[in-house]
Structure formats: C-alpha cells, structure tokens
Specification:
Layout (H helix, E strand, L loop, with lengths): L2 H7 L1 H6 L3 H6 L7 H13 L4 E5 L5 E4 L1 H6 L4 H4 L8 E2 L13 H6 L4 E8 L6 E11 L5 E10 L1 H15 L9 H18 L3 E9 L1 H8 L1 H19 L4 E6 L2 E7 L4 H16 L2 E3 L2 E3 L2 E9 L6 H17 L5 E3 L3 H22 L2 E10 L5 E12 L3 E3 L1 H11 L2 H17 L6 E6 L1 H4 L4 H12 L6 E6 L7 H14 L2 E7 L6 H6 L4 E4 L1 H4 L9 H14 L3 E5 L4 H10 L3 E3 L7 E2 H9 L18 E11 L2 E10 L3 E5 L1 E2 L6 E5 L5 E10 L2 E6 L4 E2 L5 E2 L6 H6 L14 H6 L10 E2 L11
This protein binds ligand C2E and magnesium ion (MG).
Ligand C2E binds next to strand 15, helix 15, helix 16, strand 17 and strand 19.
C-alpha cells in the first residue's frame, strides 16, 4: 500500500483538510494532491518515519512498506491485524519514564505522543517510537487512528549506554552514587508507607591510599575490583552494593533492623576485605571501617540516614579502624570532639597542655621496672583529659604527628636521662613517622640533646609499618639499628599479624596486645595457647616479651606461667607524671606490688550511666552499675523481689525486657530476655529498638530516634510517670558515681 491508497481510503479526511491555508498563501506553485502524495511516498521511502492507520477497532488499514519490511512481511499481510499486536509492550526497559501502554491510549482514544514500543520481532530487539491521533468523520464519529512511527533502536541503545554510565561505576560495575541515592530514596519512600526498615552501611577502605601510592594506580583499580567482588560474595541478594567514589562503598540492606544480624554482616565484610590480595604478583593488605545506620530509627530520609552512617563510619575509623560502628546520637558529640581536637592540637604543644606520662614495664621474674613507656596526655582546655587513642589518629591525619612525635622523642629522652641506672624509656612511633626519612636524624638529635645512651631508648612500632614499601622499611630498620636504639613491636596480635615479620625484622621486644590477655584466663579461650606460641618464638629469636594491659591477679599469674618476660598494666601501675616517677625512684622503689581484682570478670563492663527502669506503668530513674550480654546490675529501687519483670530503658529506644534475679537493698541483678549484641565500639546494644513507627502511632511525630530515654508510657499514654510507684526510689545523687 502506498500513501496514495491510504489517502483514497481516507478520502473524506483528505478533502476535509485541503491544506487551504497553504493553497491560499502560495496558490500558483502549490502541489496538487497527487504531487503531495508522491512527496509523502518519497518521504516514506527514506525510512525516516513510517505511517500507519487503523480503523475504529484498532485494526491496521495502512502500514508503510518499509515498516512491514522491517517486520519481515508484506504490508498486505499486516492489514486487518491489530496495531498493538505488532509490539510487545515491555515498559520495564522504558528509559523514557512511565507512560501508559499503547492499547490503553487507543481504547481511551487518547493522542499517542512519542511512545516507545518494543517491536515483536524474533531474534533481535527493535524499538519504535509511535505517535498518532484519533480521527473523526464529518459527523464527529470516531473513525480510527492515523499516525507515524520511527525506528529508535540505535538511539535507545546509546541512551541506555549513557544512562548505564550515569548510573554505574565503570570500574567495578557497582551502582554509582547517583543510582544508590535514587534507589535508597525510592526504597525509603516506599518503606515509610509500609512501616518497613532499611539499613545502610558506609565503608571506607583503610590503607587503600598506601597501596595506591606504593603499587601504583592500576593496582589500586584492580584492588577496588577485587573488593567489589568480595562484597558481592558476602552480600549476595541481601542488599545492593554501590561505590559512591574513591575507596568508599555503600550497601543498602532492606528489611534488616536487627543489630545482631547487621553486626554479623559487618564483621564478615571486615573479615573478607582484610584477607590478603594478590595483585599482579604483589601482595596487598587493606582493611575497612564500616558505619551503619538504620531507617526509621536513625533517619527517615536518604540524606539523614546516609549522614548518620557517615558519622558512624567516621567514629569507626577514629576507633582504631577495622571496626564497624552503629550510629547513635552520641556520635554527633564525637564528631564535635574531633573538630575540637583538630582545632586545638596545633596549639597544644605550644601552650604546654600536652604532657608525657610514664607507665612501668615490669619484669615478671622479680616485679622490678626495667623501664617506662612514654604515653601522651592532653589536658584540653574545654574537654579535659583526652586520650591519645583519640588524638593520635587525628594528628596522623592532619600531619601534626611529625611535630608531636618529635617532641615526644625529645622530651622522653630528656626525662629518661634523669632516671637512675639503665632504666629505659619506650617512645611510641607512629607509622607516619616511620615512613619519613627524617626519623633517624630526629632520633639522633633527641639522644644527643639529652645525652641518653642509645640502648636506653626503645622505639615502639606497630605492625602497620609492614604494609609500606618493604625496601624503605628495611632501610629504616638498618639506620635505626645503626644508631643503637632498641625496637619493640607494639600491639602484636592486632591487625595483620604475621609471625613471618618477626623473623626478618630486628626487634628486641614483642608487646603482646591486651586483647590477647583479655579473655586468656577464660575457659575454652585459646589466647593462652597463642601467647605460648608467641613467647617461644620470641625466645628462639632472642626477643623479650611484654604482656600488655594486665589488670587482674589471675591474668598476672597466667602470663607469668606462660613465660612472658615483662608485664605492663594497671595491676602494677598506670602511667604517672615525671615528677611522681622521680619521687618514687628517689625513694629507691623499683619494685612494684601487684594490686588488682583477683579475677578479670569477663564481659562485664563497669558503667555508671543513668537508665530508666520501667515497672508496670511506672518509670523510675536508676544507675547502670555493669552490663553484660545477658544481664545488668542496676541501682535505684529498694527491695525489688526476685522474679519481678522490669524493662530497662537504656536510651535511644533501647528497651530490654528483664527479670530480677538477685536483689540486695537498692541493687538488683537483672537477666535479659534477649541477650544484647556488640555495638562495634567495644560496648553492647539491644538488637532492636522501639520503632519510630510505634512512637508515631502513639502520637509522637514520626522522626528518627532522638537521644534520651523512651518511657513506654509516655509514648502510649502521655507524660510519664502515669502509674503509682510500687517501689521506693533511692535518691540518685546519693549513689556513688565514681568509676574506677
Ligand atoms: P599503646 O602503645 O598500646 O599503649 C598502651 C595503652 O594501654 C595506654 O593507653 C595505656 O594507658 C593502656 N594501658 C596500660 N595498662 C593497661 C591496663 O592494664 N588496662 C587497660 N585497659 N589499658 C592499659 P593510652 O595511654 O590511652 O594510649 C593509647 C595509645 O595511644 C597507645 O597505645 C599508643 O598507640 C598511642 N600513643 C600514646 N602516646 C603516644 C605517643 O607519644 N606517640 C604515638 N605515636 N602514639 C602514642
Ligand atoms: Mg605502645
């Protein structure tokens, strides 16, 4: 069929629209109808666009020759077929957004405007863009459709490519930031209606930059690909993984709000990422830190939730890396603290608010000190004492560690030079300092300035230095040993421990990390066997061993039995100011008496935190004395009978249903119905929290959980307390409030 036949079929239509306007404007040159039809025929033959027409039933009354040809048939065969039967209306692949299907538009007699449709052709995918209008006769009767179509297959493919590029990360094939944000937003919107939860994990690789710098960018790229694959192995169909950029990854986990499960996933991810990588024959080891936030508890909107997860990530990194951390509103305070640390650190040295304190390293054999470890102490003008575990990482990130480390060396050597005999000073050296070529010169200067004999200075180095350039590490070892200082491997057993490092590195001492000591006395724990192995290897290599962080008498006797040559820990002494060290030494007190609890109580954390204790419909104020996975000791109510059911409100929607198991005046031992889980920060948290949906149902506005306590009755029945108290509340101020 040609345009000519079409027009004769629709003769009435043609004569109704005689293009009178054109004819009037350019009457002498105007084509006649035949000429115009010929023109249309030519246009049709170019294949740029095709024409079609249907009758009232949607059955084809016309189809351009080229169109029929593309369908692999003759146009005569197509006549009488339903137009819609030419297409498989698959809108999933519709990249133009949501549109109504063709069949719907035609039955409703709507205009069809540039509708992309998939043509029913076997073997390959062809897409047309179809337009058309309903036509009526003179009497206004609907007579069918007339329209055109165009092949958009190639255009569509390039659009899809472009949109894929815009949505996926070209390196790993994971969703990019744009797509993750879109996916998260649509999920959160839908889930809010359905009162469902969704967790987000933010990951940041630890030491990725080091690999990139030492092995090169192509190796860095390869590493990122392998990380993506490992993440996919762990996450599988539990969620969606994205790479927002750099060495950051994001995981969306719909319908998971159990913090026990999330913690397990987090630990598994950390474990997988921390296994060694092989990249073009080189070995690389990285780690990852993870921040976790859960909707609706920690945020309802994408931005709120992602920034909560980011804050948790930040805290995880600050907490020593290789950790996961759940968001809690306390972290906001942590972020403020970090800002304050960053701001204050530069002036801290100049203003004299940073000091060195000294903790004795005690010989196991006779409990005398062989030396002291120099530990930085910072008395922040507003914050009070800040732990070096908090400010050293900031100093490393901001580069201040260079000055700070140099100062510690100078000061440590000066102080040690005033100690009698051959007492040594151990100074911590950050991996950042170790990577600087200046270190040997700085060490020499500190020794010269103080007059301290080199063998009285011990440098404590962590295993992370082995992740740097092996040649540079070797040269640094050689130069430091040439000066005559001693080297100690600090925190052995954390991170990337490899006994292989010990064999080739010139260490004089191994410090066994306190995480090995902790728990070693528990039954069924294999730390003791590991300590034995480390001790015998150290002896074979002629190195001393220090058990770090020994707190209790049972730990002391265990590490003594296992043969560690030295002990450092609160069982002997914590770090003291130079003046106190000197006065002790002047009195000739080199021996230390072990003092401490007989046993280290496993899993008990001593806390002095205010909590809510809910009984029936009354809420009391209490103090949390200690907390373990399975229970807590609380103080605040008088004479609560054993067997009483209570709900412990630990804040931020954390409620633990408990039974009183022991009761002694104002102190109760509670057993939890559901054990607590790790919060990633060395603490514990409830698996579940009261849902903001439940609070909203009870009349509170739907929002992320703010900090503070959640009296059940407040949520349900208005201001607490609402019931009559059954027990006598002890004045909280009368409870002692001093931690160890
Ligand atoms: P570290 O080198 O592992 O130091 C031992 C840490 O364990 C010290 O924490 C010490 O106070 C603590 N400790 C000692 N005995 C016990 C115990 O029985 N129980 C417990 N729970 N802890 C005990 P501190 O002083 O907070 O230092 C933390 C970390 O900060 C140090 O860990 C070290 O890595 C770093 N640091 C401290 N001073 C410096 C410094 O001058 N330079 C560098 N680069 N890092 C430093
Ligand atoms: Mg140390």
């Amino acid at each position: 069929m040609t345009m000519h036949t079409l027009f004769s079929r629709f003769g009435r239509f043609a004569s109704e629209h005689p293009a009178s306007h054109d004819e009037k404007v350019a009457a002498p040159k105007a084509l006649d109808l035949r000429g115009r039809i010929a023109l249309m025929d030519e246009f049709e033959n170019t294949g740029l666009r095709w024409f079609w027409a249907t009758d009232e039933e949607g059955l084809l009354t016309y189809l351009s020759h080229n169109a029929a040809e593309q369908l692999g048939t003759d146009e005569a065969n197509m006549l009488g077929q339903k137009l819609t039967s030419l297409f498989t209306l698959d809108y999933e692949g519709n990249i133009d957004g949501v549109q109504r299907p063709l069949g719907f538009l035609m039955s409703a007699r709507h205009t069809i405007a540039d509708l992309p449709v998939k043509v029913a052709i076997d073997g390959h995918e062809v897409w047309w863009r179809v337009s058309g209008k309903p036509v009526s006769d003179a009497a206004g009767e609907f007579r069918g459709y007339r329209g055109s179509a165009k092949d958009i297959t190639a255009l569509r493919e390039s659009q899809i490519d472009a949109s894929r590029l815009a949505q996926f990360d070209a390196l790993t094939g994971l969703s990019n930031r744009h797509r993750m944000t879109k996916r998260l937003t649509s999920t959160l919107n839908a889930y809010r209606m359905a009162k469902r939860s969704c967790a987000v994990m933010m990951l940041d690789l630890d030491r990725f930059k080091q690999v990139n710098d030492t092995l090169g960018h192509p190796a860095g790229d390869e590493l990122l690909k392998q990380v993506a694959q490992r993440l996919e192995t762990v996450i599988r169909n539990k969620g969606e993984i994205g790479r927002p950029g750099g060495d950051e990854f994001q995981i969306m986990l719909p319908d998971i709000d159990d913090r026990g499960t999330l913690g397990e996933i987090g630990s598994r991810v950390i474990q997988m990422i921390s296994q060694p990588y092989s990249i073009d024959g080189s070995r690389a080891i990285i780690g990852t830190s993870i921040g976790i936030a859960i909707a609706p508890y920690d945020g309802l909107e994408t931005e709120e939730l992602v920034s909560a997860a980011d804050l948790a990530l930040y805290a995880a990194k600050g907490g020593g890396r290789g950790q996961f951390r759940f968001y809690s509103s306390e972290l906001k305070d942590g972020a403020n603290l970090r800002r304050q640390i960053e701001e204050g650190l530069r002036d801290a040295l100049a203003s004299g608010t940073i000091d060195l304190h000294y903790q004795p390293l005690v010989r196991t054999a006779n409990h005398t000190a062989s030396g002291f470890e120099a530990l930085m102490r910072w008395n922040h003008p507003e914050r009070g004492w800040i732990s070096p575990a908090q400010f050293i990482p900031v100093a490393e990130d901001t580069g201040i560690i260079g000055n700070l480390g140099e100062w510690a060396l100078m000061r440590g050597c000066q102080d040690a030079a005033t100690w009698p005999g051959d007492l040594r000073v151990a100074v911590n050296i950050s991996a950042v300092q170790f990577a600087s070529d200046d270190l040997p010169r700085i060490v020499e200067r500190a020794l010269q300035a103080s007059g301290l004999a080199p063998n009285r200075l011990e440098l404590e180095i962590t295993e992370s230095i082995f992740l740097g350039d092996p040649h540079a590490t070797h040269v640094m070892f050689r130069d430091l040993k040439a000066i005559g200082v001693r080297l100690a491997l600090d925190n052995f057993g954390t991170g990337y421990s490899s006994l292989g490092y010990l064999k080739d590195a010139p260490f004089d001492k191994i410090k066994i990390d306190q995480s090995f000591i902790r728990g070693a006395t528990e039954q069924g724990n294999n730390n003791a066997a590991l300590i034995t192995a480390i001790v015998s290897l150290a002896e074979a290599l002629d190195m001393e061993t220090v058990a770090e962080g020994v707190e209790s008498l049972d730990e002391l006797s265990l590490v003594t039995d296992l043969g560690t040559s030295h002990v450092q820990g609160f069982v002997f002494a914590s770090a003291l100011a130079q003046a106190e060290v000197l006065s002790r030494l002047e009195e000739g007190q080199l021996a230390y008496q072990p003092v401490g609890p007989a046993k280290h109580r496993a899993g008990r954390r001593t806390l002095y935190r205010k909590v809510g204790i809910i009984h029936e419909d009354h809420r009391y104020e209490g103090v949390l004395r200690n907390l373990s996975r399975t229970g807590a000791m609380v103080e605040g109510l008088l004479d609560v009978p054993t067997g009483t059911q209570l709900v412990l409100d630990m804040g931020e929607g954390q409620l633990a249903v408990s039974t009183v198991r022991r009761s002694n005046e104002a102190v109760q031992g509670l057993e939890f119905e559901t054990p607590l889980v790790d919060d990633g920060a060395g603490g514990l948290c409830t698996r579940h929290r009261i849902s903001p949906y439940a609070l909203a149902a009870a009349g509170m506005p739907l929002a992320a959980l703010p900090s503070g306590h959640y009296p059940l009755d407040q949520a349900a029945n208005g201001p607490a307390p609402s019931g009559r108290p059954k027990f006598l509340q002890v004045e909280l101020s009368s409870l002692s409030n001093s931690p160890r």
